[in-house]
Fold this protein.
Amino acid sequence: MLFVIVVIGTVLLAGITLRKILLKGQWEFVVFFAALFFPFYITILSIVYTATKSSLLLTAFQTLKELVIALALLGFVVFQRNLSKYPFRLITLDWLFIGFYAFTLFFLVLPIGEAELINKVLYFKNIVLMGVFYFFGRNTRLGDGGLKQLFHVMLGIALLALGVNLVEFALDTHFQQFTGYALFNEQVNEIDPRGNYGLTWTFETQTMSKRFASFFADPLELAISSLMLFSIALIMYLTTPRERAYPYLFLVGVTLATLMFSSSRSSLAALLVLALYIAFVFKLYKVLVFTGLFVALFVLHFFFLASEDFQYFVIDTITFQNTSSVGHVLEWTAALESMIANPFGIGLATSGNVSAVDESLRVGGENQFLVFGVQLGWIGMVMYILILGISIAYAYRAFSELKNLYEARVAFVATSVKFAMIFPLFTSNAEKFFFVSLISWWMVGYTVNAIHRQRLNRTADE
């Protein structure tokens, strides 16, 4: 049954997307494809492989994303009016992206590092997607209706994710037990089943309680995605007339619930930091009150209602004494030692928790900054940090400058999500989570585009 639903849903989405791109020239629809496909990506692959054991069919579903993205790029070229007169108005952020990928390409074409060429190409392809979606955003104009539809699609994802979480909780069983997740990992990704539930250790806490992931790849991806969906729901609630805003308030609660089901410590910390950032930067003091209330309730629960196991878990986490925290420290130490010994990097596909990285060559991998640092050296890591920092600052300034409500909402989500992701970036290879990574980079690019258009229109009026 799940196989039939997956095949029908994926074929319909692919058909609609290709029709939009090839027949109507609406290459911008690629962002809708990303929003509807990437949250389910690993679940789709798991179900397809478990049901068919067909490597050919699995490859077809795996390469669908590359096909759609390539056709969207082709659509941009073919349907771009007056391509010869395309305006190259580049800002610092654009140059940083160009420099970062030129530098990365240098590591790809030269014989640097011990990884196989095919692994380097696959790794390069994955990190290039960040820049591709930033480029898509830089050249997209959806209009108010399109942006509203995109936000509603993503909030629909949040609602569906909570629905699956509730079923998981009611059955006390991970959804991945029904999708063939463990078999897919074992036979395709060569990752043996681990943990008390036959999945991986990330699906449980130190006290062996379950961490749920809904239909996402793992609980951490659900948690990081929930932060982005929380930002969308919050800004829709705050900028919608009060009589029509209450559904968005409900959706704020939905995103917080999915975050709780994921039991991600770094993302819960990121939520608090995000709430403070939103409250102080945008003068939304109601959010500050909400954050204070949340912290107070957590403290009361911790001291008076929580079990001893949970109390020890929190204390061990804060003091870096539990297994997971110690694991992070060991990974960071290994990465830093490599960067000190090899300040110019040891080559692509040698760090990070992605399939393109050979486990025998892997150094570190639980810190996105250090992942780039190990492979590209200090220069590559600093360039990535500058791209992230400037994106946050640019989108923040754009939020107050943009006159169009929906474009300002995009800027708000862009700066909020990129800021909130700093915490998870310290404890995971978070750019591998395509849903939140690529959509948020698209939003950064869209924000830059919106500001440029507004300034050009202002100049023309003057």
Q: What stands out?
A: The longest helix spans residues 368-401. The mean pLDDT is 87. Residues 102-461 form one domain. DSSP finds 20 helices and no strands in the chain.
